[in-house]
Structures are given as structure tokens and as C-alpha cells.
């Protein structure tokens, strides 16, 4: 395939899973990086991680795929990583490496999963000024309703006002960001389409443990192990407020639905309510036996949910600050909580790798989603309440239809992501702390 630098190439592996008991089949599509190697195996850290129970003969690191460009051609090479059961391309055992061609069948061992390789030129040039993310997953059941795009980085020639380098708010000029609320046909994470436009905000002196967007999407709050809370003006890329007073790390933050208050939770077991207009602490709530790890306001502003390392979730009446329900059922600390938009349900995610849904009115457990591969960091409902975004400790964001108990898609490859994330109410911005103590935001 001749490589035209003005065009971009889309390559993917398609895993088909056929059932002998039903006539149809399902397939999962994994998009391949054009700059980084993609590991395939049953180890959860692989960009393409196969089900170890379904395919026990697959090695932890079975094979890898890496792109190659010599100036005139763009291709993807597959390498066998000395897997005991071998890697096969079109039925022939791979020796060393092989250049993949569209339509090639890749099998991880004779009894392992089979993938179909696809590669095509994208009709419209993608933005390609920095490296993309390694892999993106999609199931065939959702493909009829959802378009498929690779995760693509910022083109600074098109959006010159956003720097691809960290922004030092004390030395950089004022920087503006496109107003995502005024687009005629706004795209959303809930449409499962995304590209990267990263903004970097520095100011904390330790790791960021909690992040939250304001209801109007104009501000983002961050809580840090440095014991402070910062409010950032996204359009200006600058810090607008700082709250201090904690003796231990701040691990959770949440804006009230009207944007007037901010709640924060800390390793010191307390929840504090801050008035954003007066910059004052107006209330302290106690009750958890260990550090508070997550908090969430209900959309009707009647309830506040909090979770803790003490393995419980508490639902508080905001007027009386009395506990309405104490929910127990997780086997380890609870890291994430989220109310459904209609306030009928509360979702919780834990270090026990389980997501549970509870009825807010009665406190009754409604359902438990299948066990995930790693700890749950954050949860978000879509605006219609039908989908649930689940951020996990393996640096993936999984989109679930919770009613069908079905995973629709997985976003992966954000190597800088740690701890909690935040998704704006319109689904067009995502924020997360990073290992360099900075807050990073990308818009869709």
C-alpha cells in the first residue's frame, strides 16, 4: 500500500465470536496504533486482552503488531513473541514477523481466537501531529447506531490557540478554547466519537485525586494529595479559586447542580461544602469510618452520595445532613458513585472490581454488573440514563448498557491517566489527573 502523507490510514483487527447455539455472531473491532506497538495476549495490560477463561491456551504476551513506514509505504507487521502455541497467519505458523495484508486471518494458536486484519485509507485526512492512542474497541451490536472513528490528536495548525505542551498558568498568555456548547451539531462521548484536544493545567504540588466539571462546563475542580482544591477557568486555562484547610489528601470533588456549591471529600473522613461565591466553607459532614473516596450530588439537589474506604456508600439528605441510607455490599473500598439523571438509581464502583446499582428510594440493590479486570475509578451516567461510563484502573473507559448488562465499547491507551476522571454534562470534555501532578482535559 503506497503511503501518501496527506492521507491517514485506519487499520484494525476484528475478533469474531461464533456461538454454536445461535445463528448470529458478535464481533469486536480493535483499532491499531500507527506509532506504537500493540500487544495481544491474555494479560490485562495488553492493548488487546483476550478472555483468559475462554482462551486458556493463549500466552500472557502472545504476539505484537507494530506499524512501519519507509517513506513510500505504510504497513503493519505482526510478531510472534515465542508463544508456546504459536501465532498463525492464514493457517501458516508465523516465523519471526510478517507484513499483514487486508483480509489476513490471524490466530493465536490453533485453538485460540481468530482475528481478521483490515486496513484502508481514510477518505478525509485525519489530524496527525502527535501520536494517537493504541487501541479502541467496539461491539457489532452497537455499530448500527454508532459511527467509528479512530482516536486522533490535535492539529495545532487548525487550532492554534491550544498548546500541545503543558501550560504554566503563571507565565503563559491567556489562551482560549473553542466553545463546545455553541456547535450546531455537537458530538458527544455518549455518541462514542472522540478526538484529542488536550489542555494541560499545572498548579498542584502533588497527585490529583478527584476532578469534576461545573454544570455549565466552564469550570473544572480538582482535589489533590497536596490537601488543596483548585477551581480552573477552562476558557482562560487559569486557576480562579483555591480552597485549603484539610489536614490530609482531598480525594473527591463535586459541583452542586446549580453550580453554587462545591462538595469535597478527604482522607480525613470528612465531607466539606464550600460556597463558591463567598469562597467559604459552609458545612462539614462526618459519618464515615475511613477516608471519603467519592461524592456526587443528585440532579434535584436533594441528596449527596458519598463512598469510602470503609466499604460503604451513604446517601445524605442535604437539608438535614442526615443519613437516608447506608449501602453495604462491596467487599473492598468504594471508589466511585453516580446518580442517574432521574435520581432513581445510584451506581457504585469498588476496588473489588464490581459495579452495583441501587434504588435511591429504598436503598435496595438492583443489580451487579459482571466483575471487571481491575478496580473501578469513576462512574458516569449518560444524559438519558441508559448508558454508564466506567473508568477502571487499567486505564480504560468502558461504555455499558446497564439494562442489557452489555459492554458496548472500550476506550484505552491513555497512558497519563491515573485515578478519577470527570466527564462534562454535555459529554464533550473529559478531565483526569496525570502522573506529573497536572490536570489534563481533552474536548470532543
Write the layout of secondary structure elements.
Blueprint: E1 8-18, E2 25-31, E3 38-41, E4 48-49, E5 63-69, E6 74-80, E7 87-89, E8 92-93, E9 97-99, E10 105-108, E11 114-122, E12 136-139, E13 198-201, E14 208-213, E15 219-224, E16 229-233, E17 238-243, E18 250-255, E19 261-266, E20 270-275, E21 280-286, E22 292-297, E23 303-308, E24 312-317, E25 323-328, E26 334-339, E27 345-350, E28 355-359, E29 365-368, E30 376-381, E31 387-392, E32 396-401, E33 406-412, E34 417-423, E35 429-434, E36 439-443
Parallel strand pairs: 3-4
Antiparallel strand pairs: 1-2, 1-11, 2-12, 3-5, 5-6, 6-9, 7-8, 7-10, 10-11, 12-33, 13-36, 14-15, 15-16, 16-17, 18-19, 19-20, 20-21, 22-23, 23-24, 24-25, 26-27, 27-28, 28-29, 30-31, 31-32, 32-33, 34-35, 35-36
Number of strands: 36
Uncertain runs are: 1-6, 18-25, 123-186, 192-196
Protein structure class:
mainly beta
How can the largest sheet be summarized?
Answer: 11 strands, antiparallel
Q: Trace the largest sheet across and list its strands.
A: 8-7-10-11-1-2-12-33-32-31-30
N-to-C terminal Cα separation, in Å? 31 Å
Strand content: over 45%
Helix percent reads: under 10%
Count of runs of 4 or more consecutive helical residues: 0
Overall geometric form: elongated
CA radius of gyration: 23 Å
- What is the overall pLDDT average? 78
Amino acid at each position: 500500500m503506497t503511503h501518501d502523507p496527506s492521507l491517514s490510514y485506519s487499520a484494525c483487527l476484528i475478533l469474531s465470536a461464533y456461538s454454536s447455539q445461535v445463528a448470529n455472531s458478535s464481533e469486536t473491532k480493535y483499532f491499531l496504533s500507527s506509532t506504537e506497538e500493540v500487544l495481544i495476549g491474555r494479560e490485562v495490560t495488553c492493548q488487546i486482552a483476550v478472555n483468559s477463561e475462554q482462551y486458556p491456551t493463549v500466552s500472557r504476551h502472545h504476539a505484537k503488531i507494530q506499524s512501519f513506514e519507509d517513506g513510500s509505504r505504510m504497513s503493519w507487521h505482526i510478531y510472534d513473541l515465542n508463544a508456546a502455541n504459536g501465532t498463525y497467519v492464514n493457517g501458516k505458523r508465523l516465523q519471526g514477523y510478517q507484513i499483514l495484508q487486508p483480509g489476513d486471518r490471524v490466530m493465536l494458536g490453533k485453538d485460540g481466537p481468530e482475528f481478521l486484519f483490515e486496513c484502508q485509507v481514510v477518505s478525509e485526512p485525519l489530524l496527525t501531529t502527535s501520536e494517537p492512542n493504541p487501541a479502541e474497541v467496539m461491539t457489532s451490536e452497537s455499530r448500527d447506531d454508532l459511527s467509528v472513528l479512530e482516536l486522533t490528536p490535535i492539529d495545532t495548525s487548525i487550532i492554534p490557540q491550544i498548546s500541545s505542551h503543558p501550560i504554566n498558568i503563571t507565565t503563559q498568555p491567556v489562551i482560549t478554547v473553542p466553545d463546545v456548547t455553541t456547535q450546531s451539531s455537537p458530538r458527544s462521548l455518549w455518541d462514542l466519537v472522540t478526538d484529542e484536544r488536550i489542555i494541560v493545567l499545572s498548579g498542584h504540588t502533588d497527585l490529583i485525586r478527584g476532578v469534576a466539571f461545573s454544570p455549565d462546563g466552564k469550570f473544572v475542580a480538582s482535589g489533590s494529595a497536596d490537601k488543596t482544591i483548585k477551581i480552573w477557568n477552562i476558557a482562560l486555562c487559569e486557576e480562579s479559586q483555591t480552597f485549603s484547610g484539610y489536614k490530609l489528601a482531598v480525594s473527591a470533588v463535586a459541583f452542586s447542580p446549580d453550580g453554587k456549591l462545591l462538595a469535597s471529600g478527604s482522607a480525613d473522613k470528612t465531607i466539606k461544602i464550600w460556597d463558591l461565591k463567598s469562597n467559604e466553607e459552609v458545612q462539614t459532614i462526618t459519618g464515615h469510618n475511613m477516608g471519603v473516596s467519592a461524592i456526587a450530588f443528585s440532579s434535584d439537589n436533594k441528596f449527596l452520595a458519598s463512598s469510602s474506604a470503609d466499604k460503604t456508600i451513604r446517601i445524605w439528605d442535604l437539608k438535614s445532613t442526615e443519613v437516608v441510607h447506608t449501602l453495604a455490599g462491596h467487599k473492598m473500598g468504594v471508589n466511585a458513585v453516580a446518580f442517574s439523571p432521574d435520581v432513581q438509581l445510584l451506581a457504585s464502583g469498588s476496588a473489588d472490581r464490581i459495579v452495583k446499582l441501587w434504588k435511591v428510594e429504598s436503598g435496595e440493590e438492583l443489580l451487579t454488573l459482571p466483575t471487571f479486570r481491575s478496580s473501578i475509578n469513576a462512574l458516569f451516567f449518560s444524559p438519558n440514563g441508559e448508558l454508564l461510563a466506567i473508568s477502571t484502573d487499567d486505564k480504560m473507559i468502558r461504555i455499558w448498557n446497564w439494562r442489557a448488562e452489555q459492554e458496548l465499547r472500550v476506550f484505552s491507551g491513555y497512558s497519563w491517566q491515573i485515578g478519577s476522571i470527570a466527564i462534562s454534562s454535555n459529554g464533550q470534555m473529559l478531565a483526569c489527573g496525570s502522573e506529573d501532578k497536572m490536570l489534563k482535559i481533552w474536548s470532543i
